[in-house]
Write a structure and sequence with these properties.
It comes from Oryzias latipes (Japanese rice fish). The chain is 23% helix and 15% strand. By secondary structure, it is of the alpha+beta class. It has a 3-stranded antiparallel sheet.
Length: 261
């Protein structure tokens, strides 16, 4: 075991230890720690739990949800903090990132690169955002890119990128380059991407079960078909959970849906 690897203490009576595989070890790193059970019933090690929750934060999430298919149980932060054995540095990162992601999710705000004040975006379909403070200070219209957080370059409106070097949509790149998935229980489905943007809220989701073609989005709680991208209840009008969709496989997505709550 690495000197930096966190491990549970078998004498900790507040933990429920189980003798089964680490169900959050999605990268098969095989951590040496004993397995303990989360409130949702799935087994974790502190390292796999830390890695999974860090991934959620990096994706812009502000809540921690079990990554097992058909579970999507939300874990309270106090449970994550305890079960992941978060270090003081990790706690500081988790808590500050949670606060930032919450602000972005519920208030749709970013920090202006010109004045460092928080700016709210009114039009989710336009990456160019005007900062009123910088506009007054500079005596001209000042706009920045919501994506790369640099002063805007290029024509408007734009939904994919501005003309600054290095400005690109990471989510669109993922949708364009992710590998295809082969369903085990749905025959004759070929060419379906393994990652989709939820048709309702735009969250990027990876289908890992490979059995049922439907998936429940943990963010908006809407279930949709991973193959045809229709809401499940619409897809099931012409097929079943384990049959090919009547409209076939929807092509790779070239835009991220905007959630109108």
């Amino acid at each position: 075991m690495s000197a930096m690897e966190k491990s549970y203490n078998l004498h900790d009576r507040t933990l429920r230890f189980v003798d089964r595989e680490d169900e959050m070890d999605f990268l098969y790193e095989e951590f040496a720690s004993p397995r303990a059970e989360m409130s949702c019933g799935h087994a974790v090690t502190p390292m796999s739990l830390t890695n999974w929750c860090r991934r959620l934060l990096e994706e812009g999430k502000s809540k921690f949800v079990c990554g097992q298919p058909n579970c999507n149980r939300e874990w309270p932060y106090v449970e994550v903090r305890k079960m992941a054995l978060l270090t003081p540095e990790e706690r500081e990162y988790f808590e500050s990132t949670m606060a930032l992601n919450t602000a972005r999710e519920y208030f749709n705000s970013e920090t202006c690169p010109g004045c460092s004040f928080s700016v709210t975006r009114k039009d989710d379909s336009n990456l160019s955002v005007r900062c009123q403070i910088c506009t007054v200070r500079k005596g001209r219209a000042y706009e920045f890119c919501w994506q790369c957080l640099k002063e805007w370059k290029g024509p408007q409106p734009r939904t994919d990128r501005c003309d600054n070097d290095g400005c690109f949509n990471e989510a669109l790149k993922t949708l364009r380059t992710c590998p295809e998935i082969l369903f085990e229980s749905v025959k004759n489905v070929r060419g379906c991407p393994s990652i989709r943007a939820c048709p309702t809220c735009g969250s990027l989701l990876e289908h890992t079960s490979k059995k049922c073609k439907n998936l429940l989005c943990p963010r908006c709680r809407v279930e949709f078909c991973f193959v045809c991208l229709k809401a499940t209840f619409k897809c099931l009008k012409t097929s079943t959970h384990f049959e090919p969709c009547s409209d076939g496989v929807a092509p790779r997505q070239t835009s991220i849906p905007v959630w109108h709550q």
